[in-house]
Amino acid sequence: MLARGRGVTVWRQIAEAIEAEIAGGGLPPGARLPTEAALSLRFGVNRHTVRQAVKSLVDKGLVRVAQGSGTYVEAKPLAYPIGARTRFSEIVVGQARDPAGKVISHREAGASVEIAEALDLPPGSLVVMIESAHFADGVPISWSTAAFPLPRFARVPEVYGATGSITAALAACGVPDYRRAVTRIGAAVADRTDAGRLEVAEGRPVLVIESVNVDRDGVPIQWARSHFSADRVRLTVGG
Of 34, 55, 73, which residue constitutes the final position of a domain? Predict the structure, then answer.
């Protein structure tokens, strides 16, 4: 029951009630919240009040809004080790979750000074740029922009699009194994692009990771800048 005279706004009381259900296991990770209409009926308030309550839970990172699908309780953060061998699919599968990758866009371009330096190429060298999103159990974990030298990695967009695996795409281009040579970790707040691709509220914390992978001979093969939802991963850095 809502206590309208205790000095706490109604929407905050609703948020506290839902948060208590999440903490108590009544709404487990991945569970879908009742609709606005159902919550309005349950608490005897209008939809605007419910919307305020849900927004506060989104802002705290307790739930996420999937456009056209509903509002879901956030899962336990993914333990994400970064070392010489960092493989998204292996990390996700190792925690009994289902990995997936999706190509958002790809194009050929001349390497910028930053990318050319990372890949040990002359500025303007042709690379294939790929924007992609990465999921665990259907929940967005990160999205990234990556560059691969051409013509060596011309098949990466095709194979990655079919398999959802960068490892498989690199193998198809003659790189059966690779390692992480450079990792730089920074922080930012979610902008409109992050919010849309990660299904988080604008202003939420985002981890930005720049990386360079090399093949067995130490030749740079991939530069990437990845944006992670900070609420959904716990980074550990090791060898």
Answer: 73
